[in-house]
């Protein structure tokens, strides 16, 4: 997660000492070379007068610095955290387990340290991630045609009411209200940045959001109403295409999405989304630049609202829009994800 940078002297001292506590939280841009690095970079240390410190990779990029080839500041930092790597493997090995802080302690890691690490890397604690994984298993049981009671046990919920409450909070509807053979089908997708939910009909994707986004229930309720209650759980052909293209995206093979989209918005809003899709991966734009691109230079606030109304994450890349000063601005999936997405897409930049 983002935090307030300390003063320059403190950061320069951390740079000289290669202080790992700042990894992923602070970066140095070296004006004499045009390169930005992690504070733990093994390269020879620059003079203090040649250093500019930033809180995010996006800010470094916006200031014109390029990534260091020695410390790879755009590589996901979570892979270097032993606690994160070990607990993610444990979660995968024991998918139905109801994790507690005592379980975390038994793995040999301090729960408070683990909590901070997961919040920094993923925007949620390990226990929150484990609960979401359990709920996903119940979701898949329903999607495969299983009974709600079976889904409840698969998800590890002893109480039917607790399962219904958790399911309703996530999907926006109680399990019993979901239609069979529905027009719209919701499907879980696993990504390196967390679980996503994609809603599709037989032809196109209507929604793609991270499962922990606060607005997700509202968006799903809107689709439920628009489809006159024809919302269910299942996997359709566009989901299969989307999964393959997301895998290519996160593996660095391709930033191109060709899966059909069903867009719902005003002409103005859709014109903003069209411009967003024209921003090359690895580049960013400001709201004012988007406004100029659609021929309405005074409509910066309206552009920001249209950006926020996007409910097809990644494919309509609202994460590529930053503040005019180069800072990260609001993102429904969390600023930590926005930073990670910009870092990931740096590899797609054309030099």
Structure description:
With 351 residues, the chain is of the alpha/beta class. It folds into 4 domains: 68 residues, DNA Methylphosphotriester Repair Domain (3-Layer(aba) Sandwich), CATH 3.40.10.10; 100 residues, Arc Repressor Mutant, subunit A, CATH 1.10.10.60; 63 residues; 82 residues, Orthogonal Bundle (Arc Repressor Mutant, subunit A). A hairpin with a 4-residue loop joins strand 1 and strand 2. Helix 8 packs across helix 9, helix 11 packs across helix 13 and helix 12 packs across helix 13. The radius of gyration is 22 Å and the shape is globular. The mean pLDDT is 81.
Shape: globular
Low-confidence stretches: none
Number of helices: 14
Strand content: 5-15%
Strand runs, count:
10
Helix coverage percent: 40-55%
Overall CATH class of the largest domain: Mainly Alpha
Indicate how many domains the architecture comprises: 4
Ends apart, CA distance between termini: 29 Å
Let me know the largest β-sheet.
4 strands, mixed
Alpha-carbon Rg, integer? 22 Å
Order of secondary-structure elements: HEEEHEHHHHHHEEEHEHHEHHEH
- The CATH architecture of the largest domain can be named as Orthogonal Bundle
Q: Which structural class matches the secondary elements? A: alpha/beta
Q: CATH H level of the largest domain: which superfamily?
A: Homeodomain-like
CATH fold title of the largest domain: Arc Repressor Mutant, subunit A
